[in-house]
Amino acid sequence: MLDLLLHNATLPDGRTGMSVAVRDGRIVEVAAGLDVAHASAHEALDAQGLLLAPHFVDPHFHMDATLSYGLPRVNQSGTLLEGIALWGELKPLLKAEALIERALTYCDWAVAKGLLAVRTHVDTSDPSLLAVEALLEVKRQVAPYLDLQLVAFPQDGVLRTPGGVENLKRALDLGVDVVGGIPHFERTYEQGTASVKLLCELAAERGLPVDMHCDESDDPLSRHIETLACETQRLSLQGRTTGSHCTSMHSMDNYYASKLLPLIAEAGVAVVANPLINITLQGRHDSYPRRRGMTRVPELLAAGVNVAFGHDCVMDPWYGLGSGDMLEVAHMGLHVAQMTSQDGIRQCFEAVTANAARVMGLQRYGLDAGCDASFVLLQARDPVEAIRLRATRLKVFRRGRLVAQTPAATAALHLPGRGERTDWMHAKI
Ligand code: FE2
After folding, report:
1. What's the CA-to-centroid distance between 60 and ligand 1, angstroms?
2. CA of 38 to the centre of ligand 1 (A)
3. Exposed (0-12), middle (13-18) or buried (19+): which is 125, by Cβ within 10 Å?
4. What's the predicted TM-score (pTM) here?
5. Given 3.60.15.10, 3.90.1010.10, 2.30.40.10, 3.40.720.10, which CATH number is that of 2-49+366-412?
6. What separation in Å is there between the alpha carbon of 213 and the centre of ligand 1?
7. Considering only Cβ atoms within 10 Å of each terminal Cβ, which end of the chain, N or C, has fewer?
8. Annotated catalytic residue: which of 97, 137, 205, 216?
9. pLDDT tens, position by position, for the chain (429 residues)?
10. What is the 121 CA–ligand 1 centroid distance (Å)?
């Protein structure tokens, strides 16, 4: 006897009329039609031809700052550097209870949007490690419905901050999952390089993954990603290392980029772009033409690099918008990268699902037998339509259990001469 039988679903790879059988929180069978073993189930659900996708994954977020927009003041210039300064003003005022409450509220938003796994950076610069302990508590509380992975992130520079290395190590001792860094924010380029080496060695010693904010600037000569790739190979960290942002790559010389891209691929370093934030924060020193700043997504993908998209910020010192909607992230990503071909749009869908799950190293992710039954039924018929409409998440399941549902979006039109019309958004031309 199955717990759940979902039938007549379209899958992201284009298969239609598919049935997905669930027992004990896992997918036990995926088959065409209703031809599944033990077809009787406690609950049956007709997907009506709509898209069933594995849940969304955000591989890059800052949950210690989320929903703090306006505290203690608004970022007037909207720049990255004022955002960092503003976060510095907010940090001494942070209270653990309020931080936990904001993070839990964000996780509620995330689950409602089918976002069931988040890798969040947490600032380790403050020796009290208040934010670290608060997010570890959030991780414990949300574990029944959301996978939260923590990155030890020395926002003010691990070498630039007095005690920065010790603070970061103490965060890891407390149970933070990933080693972070911010080499471009160290005092000098040499110290940035030293920080990459030190942090990669620390990760190798402790058997942890690495995820660094890397070259988040428009400086074409900011090349810490090269050091990260090199250290990944030297320390055999292949498949465990991620370079986040990598916006300087947008401005690099094409010849140098042609050497760098295969180096990143060879080292097995993943890259996370954050389209909503990159397009907002980069190019701020430009007049016109003004650079977009997002890293070279299609070129990285073509070189064989795993590229994912992150949300990065929602209503915090750096960004006053956002809602935990990874389809909005994918939508912006495809525009900024001009990935408007059908294949390009599908790649953008993968950047917020399967590729992001690989960055986080999620086990049992996907829609195959043996995977967790953690998936989303969308009010769309394929990934392209899902992104186009930022489709409603009709039902969100985590390990076979319904954790969120949203009524279908419809509009009733009452137009003279056009009659009564509904479901206008889904009409095929
Ligand atoms: Fe970030």
Report:
1. 6
2. 46
3. buried
4. 0.97
5. 2.30.40.10
6. 6
7. C
8. 216
9. 899 999 999 999 999 999 999 999 999 999 998 766 556 899 999 999 999 999 999 999 999 999 999 998 999 988 988 998 999 999 899 999 999 999 999 999 999 999 999 999 999 999 999 999 999 999 999 999 999 999 999 999 999 999 999 999 999 999 999 999 999 999 999 999 999 999 999 999 999 999 999 999 999 999 999 999 999 999 999 999 999 999 999 999 999 999 999 999 999 999 999 999 999 999 999 999 999 999 999 999 999 999 999 999 999 999 999 999 999 999 999 999 999 999 999 999 999 999 999 999 999 999 999 999 999 999 999 999 999 999 999 999 999 999 999 999 888 888 898 877 776 566 543
10. 7
Roughly how many angstroms between the first and final C-alpha of the chain, as a whole number? Answer: 42
In angstroms, rounded to a whole number, what is the distance separating the alpha carbons of residues 258 and 23? Answer: 48
- Nearest Cα to 284, choosing from 190, 217, 337, 351? 217
Structure token digits, residue 335? 């525009």
Tokens at 39, concatenated: 């077809």
Rounded distance from Cα 373 to ligand 1 centre (Å): 30
Q: Which residues of 278-312 are buried (b: 16+ CB within 10 A; e: fewer)?
A: bbbbbbbeeeeeebbbbbbbebbbebebbbbbbbb
Ligand 1 being an ion, which residues bring their Cβ within 5 A of it? 312
Residue 216 bears catalytic tag: yes
3-state secondary structure of 17: coil
Three-state DSSP state, 405? strand
Cis peptide before 72 (omega within 30 of 0): yes
Q: Which residues pair with 2 in a beta bridge?
A: 41
Please give the distance, rounded to the nearest whole angstrom, from the Cα atom of residue 87 to the centre of ligand 1.
Answer: 13
Q: Please check whether the domain covering 56-360 is classified as CATH 3.20.20.140.
A: yes
Domain limits of the chain? 2-49+366-412, 56-360
